[in-house]
Design brief:
six-stranded mixed sheet, 190 residues, six-stranded antiparallel beta barrel, single chain, 4 helices
Length: 190
């Protein structure tokens, strides 16, 4: 399966550099100089392969230059193209717990106690960690930080994701009823 690593944005300066919209958590690895990537044009048709010549990060944005597009005119024609990797060709590491969006969307989300929470409808990239988006049976979207403490098990064969959410993350699940804890003036019950 081919997955998008980045989308080519506007040309930057005159030397054939482009701004990239990154779609991977490992831009330096996936877009290392010398890497050859398949591309797809804006309409989704396969386009020419591109070889990464330079990659840099300015603190907020990523920029790249490609051997096949040596000047501004050439890279302007690439705007909107998707840079792709073939995940089937990559070796799978049994200890690698990286998940792709297409592997998670549609899985049933269950609490570790077996209670149904909804369905995974998206995987959003985040700065510290990604977030699983679970749509509850009543249509609410809940963002669950995709960390092992909260998502201890992902089992695509069983179409299941187990979630151990903190109280209050899911509506009506584990919320503390303050009226039972304190009196109206804030004091404890005797």
């Amino acid at each position: 399966m081919q997955l998008t690593v980045a989308i080519i944005g506007p040309a930057h300066a005159l030397k054939g550099e482009v701004r990239l919209e990154i779609r991977t958590d490992d831009p330096e690895g996936r877009l290392a100089p010398g890497t050859v990537l398949a591309t797809q044009d804006r309409s989704g048709r396969p386009a020419t392969e591109l070889t990464v010549e330079r990659l840099r990060f300015d603190g907020t944005r990523w920029f790249a230059a490609f051997a096949e597009a040596p000047d501004r005119t050439a890279v302007e024609a690439l705007r909107g193209h998707r840079l792709l990797i073939d995940t089937d060709a990559e070796e799978e590491d049994e200890n690698d717990e990286a998940w792709y969006r297409h592997q998670l969307v549609g899985l049933a989300a269950r609490h570790v106690d077996g209670t149904g929470l909804g369905t995974v409808t998206d995987l959003e990239p985040g700065v510290a960690q990604d977030r699983l988006i679970v749509t509850t049976p009543d249509g609410q979207r809940v963002a669950v930080p995709f960390v092992e403490a909260l998502v201890p098990e992902v089992d695509p064969e069983a179409d299941l994701v187990l979630i151990d959410p903190p109280g209050g993350l899911f509506p009506g699940l584990g919320a503390i009823d303050v009226s039972e804890e304190t009196t109206a003036d804030g004091g404890d019950h005797d």
